[in-house]
Amino acid sequence: DRWTLEDEVPKRLKPHEWQREMLIWLNMAATRGRAVLFLDGLDQLDDTHANALDLRWLPRSFPAEVRTIITCSPGPALDSLLERGWPVLELGYHDEGRHWVSMDIESKAEIIERYVGFRSYPPLDPVMINDILENPMTGNMNFMLQLVDEMCILEMSGRNTEQADYLMLLQAHDMTSFYDYLLWKWEKFFDSIHPNFVRRVVCLVWGARFGIGEQELLNMLLDIPRIGLLHFFNTTRYCWHWSDGLVNFSHQTLRNACEYRYLPSKLEKISVHRQLA
């Protein structure tokens, strides 16, 4: 295998040290042939970790044998990238209402159809699909697919009498307000079984930073049975990222929404960290 690099990757480096270390590894890879480095979603980085969004850790040049592709939504990380003067391929534009438009309605409809099939969801009501397609916010792919997830899971759970409530999601003017309403919907369903269930679970995930295990959650939520916790994560599965047995938020925007809704004060944040200590 020409990509076998046996040296150990250093840990706990400072941003400028990461930049140097990345170049060392990329140069080693380049000696073995051409490579493509794909960095997806830099806007999702946790900025509390050494101001990651200023991208001081990212080299300003790369070995000739390494082609680099970076994706990033508007925000501080994109601003940092634009300052470097690198070639940009813009996958969308702002319409007159300043909504981000990434594709036409036909393209969005095809993506929804394929996504529903990929997830093995039941077909969506054509009227509801039309409402989704006409919403300016669905120019944001993340918004569109998570909205589809919500609608389909609602149908699969047999709670389709609540569909009118979910149409309120279409009124979200940004991803933060979308997630805030989503959290309210989770509370409406799960908190009726276990008081403050959603707040307690998501705050522990928030406080763990790099993820928390199922057993650790159960150890701190003694009144919640395992089946209840698994049901929650399964029903909301598209919002979480699992790796090596640890669960974390799949999007930084959801993490921010949880912090805004449940942990507005410094004392509340400290309380969560102490619970995990």
Structure description:
The protein is mainly α. It contains twelve helices and seven strands. The strands form three sheets. It has a three-stranded antiparallel beta sheet with strand order 5-7-6. Strands 1-2 form a two-stranded parallel ribbon. A hairpin with a 2-residue loop joins strand 6 (240-243) and strand 7 (246-249). The two termini are 42 Å apart.
Would you spell out the secondary-structure blueprint of this structure?
Elements: H1 15-30, E1 35-39, E2 66-70, H2 76-82, E3 93-94, E4 100-101, H3 105-118, H4 126-134, H5 141-156, H6 163-166, H7 175-190, H8 197-208, E5 212-213, H9 214-220, H10 226-235, E6 240-243, E7 246-249, H11 252-262, H12 266-276
Parallel strand pairs: 1-2
Antiparallel strand pairs: 3-4, 5-7, 6-7
Short description:
With 277 residues, the protein is mainly α.
Overall mean pLDDT score? Answer: 84
Strand content: 5-15%
Categorize the overall geometry.
Answer: globular
What series of H and E elements makes up the topology?
HEEHEEHHHHHHEHHEEHH
Summary keywords:
three-stranded antiparallel sheet; mainly alpha; two-stranded parallel ribbon; 7 strands; 12 helices; 277 residues
